[in-house]
Amino acid sequence: MEPGKRDQVNLIWVLGGLYLIYTGGEMLYRIAAGEAELLVVSGLGGLAFLVIGGVMLCREWKAFQTQKRRGTEGPRAAEEPPEGEEGGEEP
Hints:
The chain is mainly alpha-helical. Helix content is about 60%, strand content about 0%. The protein contains two helices and no strands. The radius of gyration is 22 Å and the shape is rod-shaped. The model has no long low-confidence stretch (mean pLDDT about 80).
């Protein structure tokens, strides 16, 4: 993995986490409504989906906060010299 790559927000992970949370909640709702056939499987699956989706969203939230602290330019902003300045050359 490239340095700083972990600190970039990935929209696919956000959407995947939201979908897992939705699916887990739907599975648990069906248990509460009495519509689920396999209670144990639905319950464990629903809880697992909620936890995994939450972890995915937390991971991306931390990446977003790190990116926000660094500024909107991203991780390479500290490496590049400001415009109009050449690195190490004097006239």
